[in-house]
Amino acid sequence: MFLKWEDEEEEISQSYIGTLTHDLEATLKHLQDKNFDEICEVIDKSDRIFVYGTGSAQLNAAHELQRAFIVQHRYLTIIHDETKFEVILPDLRPTDLMIIISLSGDTSTLIPKIQKLVAKGIPFISITNMKNNNLARMTPHNLYATTTSVPTNSGINYTSLASFFIVGEVLASQYLEYKEHKRKK
Fold first, then answer.
1. Does this model's pTM top 0.85?
2. Phi, psi at 98, each rounded to 5°
3. Residue 10 confidence class, pLDDT cut points 50, 70, 90
4. d(CA 94, CA 107)
5. Helix/strand/coil for 151
6. CA-to-CA distance for 168 and 134, rounded, in angstroms?
């Protein structure tokens, strides 16, 4: 019986690694094919940049994005929850930029906020799972991370958000290259 359990644990462990590898490779493939010029231009022209993550893991990705941009002297303000988003929303101007990190891109409480951003002419960038979703449809500036849910022995699905961190790293490095290229011109 113990040998059988060990085999099952090894199979599950290998499937996690295989799924994570697939997710990271698919995310990187998407990012390699993406032209970042327009997104980098929007970032560069923005007076203020705000980042909102819809959940705790997304908020961690927002913190990492903030860290990556500090070295480039672009300071991102993290919005920590929905209430703060609502408070900040009326003060946003078209010269600001909002970056929204959402796993599904279909969070029901997020859609009215996005509609307000669109109505006010506030540019925003979405970072979502690679699927058709409301958030990505509402902005021309979208980036995708591939994530796959994997069933666990506990019966709860596990979804790694490591791909979201990769998207942030690539965005920061693309902006760095954009600034270098612009400086050389």
1. yes
2. -115, 130
3. very low
4. 24
5. coil
6. 21
Residue type, 100: I
Highest mean pLDDT among 75-84, 105-114, 144-153: 75-84
Cβ-count burial of 23 within 10 angstroms (0-12 exposed, 13-18 middle, 19+ buried)?
Answer: buried
Q: Does the CA dihedral 138-140-145-148 come out positive or negative?
A: positive
Distance CA 169, CA 86 (A): 28
Per-residue pLDDT tens digits for 32-53? 999 999 999 999 999 999 999 9
Pick the closest to residue 43 from 135, 175, 165, 145 (CA basis): 175
Dist CA 74 CA 69 (whole Å)? 5
Q: What is the CATH number of domain 17-184?
A: 3.40.50.10490
* Residue 70 one-letter amino acid: I
Considering only residues 109 and 7, tell me which one the structure prediction assigns the higher pLDDT: 109
**What confidence tens digit (pLDDT) does each residue in 61-102 have?**
999 999 999 999 999 999 999 999 999 999 999 999 999 999
Domain definitions of the chain by residue range: 17-184
- Find, among 78, 68, 65, 180, the residue nearest to 127 by Cα: 65
| Coil, strand or helix at 63 | helix
Dump strand ranges (E) for the chain.
Answer: 48-53, 76-79, 96-102, 124-129, 141-145, 149-150, 158-159
Report the alpha-carbon distance of residue 44 to residue 61 in Å, rounded. Answer: 21
Q: Measure the CA–CA gap between 107 and 129, rounded to whole angstroms.
A: 12
